Amino acid sequence: MATKANSVPHPTVIKVDPFKPAAEQKGLHNRWHPDIPAYAAVKPGEVFKVECVDWTGAQIGNNDYSDDIRDVDLTKVHNLSGPVAVEGAEPGDCLVVDILDVQPFEEMPWGYTGIFELNNGGGLFAKEFQSRAAKAIWDFEGIYASSRHIPGVRFAGITHPGLIGTAPSQELLNEWNRREGELIQACGEVVPAVAFPPEPKGVHIGSKEPLKPEVLEKIAKEGARTIPGREHGGNCDIKNLSRGSRCYFPVFVKDALLSVGDLHFSQGDGELSFCGAIEMAGIVTFKTSIIKGGIEKFALKQPIFLPSPVDPMYSAKLVFEGISVDYHGDGKQYNMDATVAYKQAALNCIAYLMKLGYTREQAYLLLSAAPVESHVGAVVDSPNACVTLGIPLGIFDHDILPNPDGLVKKDFGQCAIRSDGVV
Amino acid sequence: MATKANSVPHPTVIKVDPFKPAAEQKGLHNRWHPDIPAYAAVKPGEVFKVECVDWTGAQIGNNDYSDDIRDVDLTKVHNLSGPVAVEGAEPGDCLVVDILDVQPFEEMPWGYTGIFELNNGGGLFAKEFQSRAAKAIWDFEGIYASSRHIPGVRFAGITHPGLIGTAPSQELLNEWNRREGELIQACGEVVPAVAFPPEPKGVHIGSKEPLKPEVLEKIAKEGARTIPGREHGGNCDIKNLSRGSRCYFPVFVKDALLSVGDLHFSQGDGELSFCGAIEMAGIVTFKTSIIKGGIEKFALKQPIFLPSPVDPMYSAKLVFEGISVDYHGDGKQYNMDATVAYKQAALNCIAYLMKLGYTREQAYLLLSAAPVESHVGAVVDSPNACVTLGIPLGIFDHDILPNPDGLVKKDFGQCAIRSDGVV
Amino acid sequence: MATKANSVPHPTVIKVDPFKPAAEQKGLHNRWHPDIPAYAAVKPGEVFKVECVDWTGAQIGNNDYSDDIRDVDLTKVHNLSGPVAVEGAEPGDCLVVDILDVQPFEEMPWGYTGIFELNNGGGLFAKEFQSRAAKAIWDFEGIYASSRHIPGVRFAGITHPGLIGTAPSQELLNEWNRREGELIQACGEVVPAVAFPPEPKGVHIGSKEPLKPEVLEKIAKEGARTIPGREHGGNCDIKNLSRGSRCYFPVFVKDALLSVGDLHFSQGDGELSFCGAIEMAGIVTFKTSIIKGGIEKFALKQPIFLPSPVDPMYSAKLVFEGISVDYHGDGKQYNMDATVAYKQAALNCIAYLMKLGYTREQAYLLLSAAPVESHVGAVVDSPNACVTLGIPLGIFDHDILPNPDGLVKKDFGQCAIRSDGVV
Amino acid sequence: MATKANSVPHPTVIKVDPFKPAAEQKGLHNRWHPDIPAYAAVKPGEVFKVECVDWTGAQIGNNDYSDDIRDVDLTKVHNLSGPVAVEGAEPGDCLVVDILDVQPFEEMPWGYTGIFELNNGGGLFAKEFQSRAAKAIWDFEGIYASSRHIPGVRFAGITHPGLIGTAPSQELLNEWNRREGELIQACGEVVPAVAFPPEPKGVHIGSKEPLKPEVLEKIAKEGARTIPGREHGGNCDIKNLSRGSRCYFPVFVKDALLSVGDLHFSQGDGELSFCGAIEMAGIVTFKTSIIKGGIEKFALKQPIFLPSPVDPMYSAKLVFEGISVDYHGDGKQYNMDATVAYKQAALNCIAYLMKLGYTREQAYLLLSAAPVESHVGAVVDSPNACVTLGIPLGIFDHDILPNPDGLVKKDFGQCAIRSDGVV
């Protein structure tokens, strides 16, 4: 007979409260540094769960104004769960991580996508659009998300951690700070910022035992910000590193020290509006193993992974092309720049969605959040890189295909904007 | 009863000889200019075929040296079939083109992938690798390609025209020449070149009737080179614009004047070695229709398309990540540069393939030619863009997955190199 | 800010204990009858959850013997959660049911697949194999299942309710009893039974308020057994009616009275060993709507559905063929019998798996539980129907392809068998 | 340089004329018998082509009446190309056949689907519909087919040989004749026939050299008809045994003696109208290899195969269910009969398509020809087998989904019927 005795749930090694500010919780940290001590430990082969707050640590609410987006404190992000020590891992090894599942909390069946202000976070079109805060709340209904702020669409989630990585060694951390510092210096003061140097303000290390002040100070002064992805993984925001995938991380410190956070219910390739995924709090299920000497064995400079067999299959798509000419702006020719090409493809798609009746903000949010596919077409046809962006037809409840009569323009209202009405 | 009388083959409106220099053939041209007269005309709704030489116009042979790649004359490329006038199309319209099929010639069941010399064509890693000419010949066996120069792989083709577009208006052409000229001026003399200005040498316009000298001279002086993709389509090298897809082109001149060439049996996202696809001569089957005023109706700045339902499905992949730090080179941090990120992902994959026993040249060619998928992961996590590159497991006849014992290194020989042995 | 107040979980309208005998629980019933009163009520558009025990009602344990399978009491199955009244549904309508999610209980991360005894339940090969009880326990690790009883495989679940349907009208119920009674009479006493007439023994109706004795007696005497699928849906055991699918049910009684149970973590097409899916207890998330007069509008004789976009994609398969000749038995030719053809294909696959080292019981269980695809090839080539059965390559951790050296036979032990050792 | 000299086309080992009666051509035969001599010979590893007439041998024309279907001479079918001897194959071996490509003839870009008369060929619903001859002509436009007789649909082909197999040994042939003879005897005279005994009328063996009269007589008297698939493959009509697949055949005679024919441009699972695929003449490209002792190594009772990676991907479907109760007929309950279940699912789909405006004949033809997927859901839930049939949404140029307002009924005319107007 089935009994509790013969039914052992997988242990949760880090527990959090998604409704409580991250800074008040243990098991969370928001900088990368080798001296952040392990909060939990697991053995290879063990299945375990890790709970995560949303990346802002509960700063954003389920409501119809974007004031919380406007006012978000970015010195406090991302709030990561961990580090988790994997017993036996040593520098030079490869840590194999099975991302067995990623689920929202049952008591929090919603997430959000935000457009950040030009002066507070930015985003891919922060300057082009002179961005003001806007957002969409997404309701989770089982595997699907839909939004009262972007009517007419529903899609299956492709849940994944936007951010997952092993801890850097001191050497690697120094290298990050060197190269990013040089970029900051080279660019001077620009808005939005090109990169984020270590920032003592807002640091939170929710370790088991209080850290010695000198350790905390070192972390605050040197700790790498979590915004970019780097050699250890980190905030790569790869939508297909989703539940069911297997990832191979390089190990830089003893016990690997795995951290995870910034869970996404869904995301489009590019995640263009910066807070572009459907951000959520939730639970990740993991299993790990160690391959000794894996960095050398696999020439591992950055993680590699096997995608999941259960990513949603929206095979029919409408695909937009872009090249490295800023023809939506001043017409300048760039040299084989895939980022510029990506932007044109996205702007072409936004223009198309606006013909269907979506506002620019809705279109921008939708491309960020839906399972949009962006491929690098070619990066050798000088001077134009070509990038494509495909939007699945199956996520719309209406026909969006080009047809001889043109497109039917509907009224989809507007997404959540600031309470002062500024867009 | 089935009879010849009731079985009408689709007409071929342009015929070519794949074994004859392109410059000696009619129906081919190798510049973009509104004054190139239509070579053939079709009505909307008609199914028709267009034959194409390979992009070099028979310069490359089925042999085991890369001397022909080294010596290729790039002033003569690409050789395009056309223009085909579509009756009734007018500037401002959208030309709908069904790419119904793309097949190699029965009498030429092979194609090639080339690495070009640093000084003659370049390629994505021309400088990094100080590239010398190399190539792989691919044998076509039905839907599959395999190569004596890259043993251990076989894959289904995803046949497509690397280059397809409508003719530019004079205004658009002028704009191209302006912006590309400015880039050339800004960069100065560099190797490989950043862009290619109009070049009278090598121009070929194989029109029905001889052109007036002043027209030919104008085309030679102003005609845009065919290397980059642009607003009209052109050399976009998008592997998924394959047989079975439907493409929506903006129309800039009367009758649209569609041209096509640079057929590929297969290509990876990025086409990294420049002549990176499996280049072939062959036959395209088309059908067109016109949507009046389509540019305005669909906000069309560049073509959009619906991909084919028959692209090969290699769902299991090993995915490599890259960020916009040149960690394979001098370690410099770039600002959200997806091209740099793509390059790191590709270099990570090449390093992995070399652990399996492929030479650097073989790996470079393989990534260019096989149905590799490259996604823009995220382009908002300052300063790092993240790009992924996934290589299908199913194209290998051996297991390439990471495993605890490391990778088995086999001897796959080498691809075709120069007869003087220089690599 | 995210708060409990703005985060409303979806309500659970039926709660059960997966470790308690079903007969002791409310909200469960194990017969189909129009007089079974609604246990819960929902409005169209509402998202709600329903908890389900496993189909046997906790009779099977997580252990290494199959005695519980041998001794299972089949008069008590299936235990269904419901009925759920959908307000406003009337006979003749179509009830649209979104199966938004299907998850195992967190506290019970395992399921089982069983081979039933010839004399107690049977199965597709009960007679051919003179079946004795055997089973495999499957451990759930996020989206994956694996089994200590069938080493070497792991696959992503395709979670679905094996059984879901609306209540029959009295007329429809009478028709079921008539036609099944005639079959039973025509076949006489056979083992295993061809069909199951109403059976008062074991009836359980866990209604809110105690039923009047005469009502209970009527249900016990007339209530249709839950083994077969019928016009209302019921036990169709369709693996692709999985989480994410949308199903259109005919409505036969006021408020539709939807019931659900027999949850599966995974199943192969055919579910051949009878208890062939990975049986589990768990939670279904639903949303409904009503289409008035839908039976007539859609010519609805039985449910139709739209499959989920997230079913696992194992595209590479090894496919076995079968025809309607019992060439594994007495060589008899059957007349266009797809069931016989299915059996040959399955037996061909079992024979192949045994060459790899699996026992017959392991192979039989594996085909039942894994995401095997069985297609009806052709049913018009008299006298042979042709049916195929494809087993995904990606579920094995070793290479199972035919190769010139033959197949490597490994030792995979044996599945759970009876404690008396009888197989 | 590319030259004819370095471009060697694959040889065509059997050439036919698709517009000439099969009986007048060499390289064709229409019975299975071990004494039919090889018409061509190939070596393992060689790529070669085989041309095929359509299965009737040019009896059906591209016109708008079905009289040719009504009058077809079925004693003459199928016309197979071959046999092809594979050097070195011996009884007990496994013949590996790569079906590298399947293409229609360029000069015959059309095919047909037929409903046969109850008294001449039948079909799955011959009795239910009291079938009279009807047909649809399909035009091939590259990879797509569409029909003037069934407007509103277009789909990508999944080209395949409906019929492919090795020659039987004398023992195997005797066994076929025994068992099929017993079935014919058991059923008595029925219409349509349950099976087809050897039939001297219409025999054609187009061997290189004239056969000795006694050999021809033996073949005529004993030769197995080609209608059903059997242990050697034969007329299995499996749509996914398509171009790009690899098939493993058992070898029963020296040199294997492979024959192929009955090419299909497309087919639905089940091929229900008997001549249900899109029948065509065309060209198959093959490559073979031999695995010594493969029958024993792989427990090979019938071919097994690896499907192609390029089958069209129409993931969104509307799925119909059926059970083994003839609820479209007399309401009889059958015992776990998957064929009856398949029929109900198909009839449910036909009823739905008729709500959209298609005639019963159009719907029947469409289900036969389009890439419909039919899965065996479950064959263990006594007494009801459950079978599903899914029709892809992407093949329609209009929305066919159920919606609250019911289905829009359009006028699609009618398919080709008899010139006397009888339907």
Automatic annotation (TrEMBL), chains A, B, C, D:
Give a GO molecular function annotation for the protein.
hydrolase activity, acting on carbon-nitrogen (but not peptide) bonds, in linear amides
Point out the coiled-coil segments of this chain. Answer: none
Q: Which NCBIfam families match?
A: FormamaseFmdA (NF045496)
List the protein's name. Answer: Acetamidase/Formamidase
Organism this protein belongs to: Calocera cornea HHB12733
